[in-house]
Design goal:
single chain; mainly alpha; Rossmann fold; 5-stranded parallel beta sheet
Length: 740
């Protein structure tokens, strides 16, 4: 350090020490002063009083000399004016600096009150901390060491409390997934006046007596498991939704739970939905999220490993494993002070071993008397073997009356059938009875048949015509589907084929309106003579994204999850077409990038985005991971090997040399995709590899391999590139071993 810098530093230190000393001394003066006023303020008050007396004397003398026109009178008047100005300035200053202790305390109290009003309702420790500070100020005595320690401890405890609260919220959020309630919301509501029998007490003259184990009685008993089974389309899922929403369910369970607090959870498997909707992990994630969110303070006990990881390293974004969720679920139900009731529908829609799931549920039910399970599935042998000795019901044995009500109401809603019912009530009742008997307890069959009968009414069919039409409808649901396809007009064969192809290609739970979208025709010119369901799905996702209003639809987290799921499904289709070596997805991906930037508020950006902001693809594609550097759509295409997209962009003039992420992308491409690496840097990369080979030739044994010679000038250089790629891999391993 030179002399000038030393002098400057010394001067700064002197000024700092002087300021600190002045601040401390003034604070002590205020504290020691009886009325809380500085000594300088007392001196200023004395000066003002002296000036006032002097001003009065000057005024008197000036009055005495007014009769004469001497110079003395003029000087006295000038002196009086100067004295008055000085006195006015000093009085204003004294007024500004002489606040009484009462005024100060009032302002301090006002500030404390404003701070307390600004706190959130649940900010208990912050409120206590401010009250402690207020008491210390009102005491007007210096705080003791004990008081300071208590204040510090209270502050530390409050910060720890808020941090733990945040970690618990993050833990619950990690259990949540976008499609958790999707299947439940898609199940239709039970038709009015149906399923009332499920809560009815058995009677001696009840025609349903003996066909099932009464559900209401089971709810109040200590038996742990109830099985709802039935044919496909018989209404199992609708009944489970009806039960979970009915207030009578909890009132019956209150008899069983006793003094324990009741916690309920539900899950609806769906093999047409996302992966977690048809997995064991998704089942337990949903049940854990629904129950533990009601007592988050026990999260450290239920998830000890994750909790410890979060305390040390912060948020844990790893996906949940079966061992984790099953272990946590066992800890949850092991608490005998709580009562748990779980409803699980669609066990047959599990994507996995149904026998293992049934065994896990049986073990859960046998945990203790504080657990009840209501399960629903088709009558598969694996479930019959597992639950045959448990209380149960079979839907088709109990829903004859419900189907009659459903069919009657649906037909009567039609004005033409209502008129036929008035004209020929006997045959109208016979038609409804025939539909009920032929349905064999399958609601879905009734729904399809009623639609067919209503179509006949549009053709002016009579009741006799409707009965004849009903005779040709197969009883079996699968045979009915075959008949519907067989009756299809040949003119719609092509469209029907496209619909089935689109449904098979889609990863979304439902597919609708896709064939009405013709956006892909304008983006890809050669699709007029061919149909690709993946291209159709990409066009549909793009159309749905464009329909989103940024300010209205993306206003809450649920809407954001829906939009993120749409983007995930879109990206899946792009990757599928890349694997099939089909470049048609490229214009859709470009267009979706623009739409997404608009919706997320990114707006127009430069050619290369800010490296501090991750691209939207990184947020919706779990394969990219947390460590990959993805700041633009081009970066994402390189890392995820979307070769057709990269090739199209380079052909259009994209300058990879100007990409600030160039080195990282080239390294990733060299490690994973030789074709991608050649696209990015076909010339400079070979030169770099050659230099690296020469530099480390003495350290790597693989470099002693002979360089493959070309047989002619026109021979492809694939062998040379492969050789260089092997050299780079060996060099990388060598350098890694040296670093370690």
């Amino acid at each position: 350090m030179d002399a000038g810098a030393s002098i400057g530093l010394a001067s700064s230190l002197v000024q700092l020490i002087s300021f600190t000393g002045t601040l401390v001394s003034k604070s002590r003066e205020i504290y020691r002063s009886a009325d809380g006023i500085l000594v300088e303020n007392d001196e200023l008050s004395t000066v003002i009083k002296t000036l006032e007396a002097q001003n009065r004397r000057i005024a008197a003398q000036a009055t005495a000399f007014q009769s004469s026109s001497s110079e003395t009178a003029k000087h006295l008047l000038q002196l009086q004016q100067v004295d008055s100005v000085l006195l006015e300035v000093l009085q204003d200053r004294l007024k500004d600096f002489t606040e009484t202790a009462k005024d100060k305390n009032a302002k301090i109290e006002q500030n404390f009150s404003q701070i307390l009003l600004s706190l959130q309702p649940g900010s208990q420790w912050q409120r206590q901390l401010i009250e402690t500070a207020r008491q210390a100020v009102q005491a007007q005595t210096p705080p003791s060491v004990t008081q300071l320690d208590d204040f510090s401890a209270l502050l530390s405890a409050g910060v720890k409390h808020d941090r733990e609260k945040l970690l618990k919220l993050r833990m619950l959020e990690s259990l949540n997934f976008a499609d958790m309630r999707d299947r439940y919301e898609r199940i239709p509501e039970a038709h009015q006046k149906t399923f009332e029998w499920v809560f009815r007490e058995p009677a001696c003259n009840d025609d349903l007596r003996g066909k099932w184990d009464n559900f209401a009685t089971w709810l109040m008993s200590n038996k742990q498991l109830y099985w709802v089974t039935g044919k496909p389309g018989s209404g199992k899922s609708t009944l489970m939704k009806y039960l979970s929403d009915d207030t009578r369910l909890r009132s019956h369970l209150d008899v069983w739970r006793g003094e324990r607090h009741l916690y309920t959870g539900r899950f609806f498997f769906w093999n047409s939905g996302a992966a977690l909707q048809m997995s064991r992990v998704g089942l337990l994630q949903s049940l854990l999220h629904e129950t533990v969110s009601q007592f988050p303070d026990e999260i450290p006990r239920i998830f000890p490993d994750r909790w410890q990881y979060q305390e040390y390293f912060g948020y844990d974004g790893r996906p949940w494993s079966w061992s984790e969720v099953s272990g946590s679920f066992k800890k949850l139900v092991a608490d005998s002070t709580k009562a748990f009731f779980f409803m699980i529908d669609g066990l047959d829609e599990l994507d996995g071993d149904c026998a293992e799931l049934a065994d896990f549920l049986l073990k859960t039910a046998s945990t203790g008397e504080n657990v009840k399970l209501c399960l629903a599935s088709r009558p598969w042998l694996v479930f019959e073997d597992a639950f045959r000795y448990r209380p149960s019901l079979r839907m088709e044995d109990l829903t004859a009356r419900d189907i009659e009500v459903f069919a009657s109401d649906k037909l009567t809603e039609n004005v033409m059938f209502a008129q036929l019912q008035k004209d020929d009530p006997m045959n109208a009742r016979a038609l409804i009875k025939e539909v009920t008997e032929k349905s064999s307890g399958v609601f879905l069959w009734v729904s399809l048949v009623v639609k067919s009968l209503l179509e006949g009414l549009q053709d002016d069919d009579t009741v006799d015509d409707l009965l004849a039409r009903l005779q040709f409808i197969p009883r079996d649901l699968e045979a009915l589907y075959q008949k519907i396809l067989g009756d299809l007009d040949p003119g719609y064969f092509e469209q029907a084929s496209q619909i089935f192809q689109t449904v098979r290609a889609s990863y979304l739970p439902t597919v609708k309106d896709f064939l009405e979208d013709r956006a892909h025709i304008f983006l890809v010119s050669d699709l007029k003579s061919s149909f690709d369901p993946h291209v159709t799905l990409c066009a549909a996702r793009l159309r749905h994204a464009k329909a989103i209003c940024p300010k209205e639809d993306i206003g809450d987290m649920s809407s954001m999850e829906v939009f993120a799921d749409l983007l995930r499904q879109f990206v899946i289709q792009c990757h599928w077409m890349e694997r099939r070596d089909k470049p048609e997805y490229v214009p859709f991906l470009d267009e979706m990038d623009k739409v997404t930037e608009t919706i997320l508020g990114a707006g127009e950006q430069n050619a290369f985005q800010d490296l501090d902001i991750p691209h939207w693809t990184k947020r919706v594609d779990p394969y990219v991971g947390r460590t990959c550097q993805v700041h633009s759509l081009f970066d994402y295409a390189v890392i995820r090997s979307l070769t057709h997209y990269v090739q199209a962009k380079i052909t259009d003039g994209y300058s990879f040399a100007m990409n600030p992420n160039k080195s990282y992308l080239l390294r990733c491409a060299t490690e994973t995709n030789q074709r991608m690496a050649d696209l990015l840097d076909p010339g400079d990369r070979n030169s770099f590899l050659a230099q690296s080979t020469t530099l480390y030739a003495g350290s790597v044994e693989e470099t002693q391999a002979p360089f493959p010679a070309t047989k002619s000038s026109n021979e492809p250089v694939k062998e040379q590139r492969k050789w260089r790629h092997n050299i780079m891999n060996s060099l990388r391993k060598r350098l890694s071993s040296r670093k370690s």
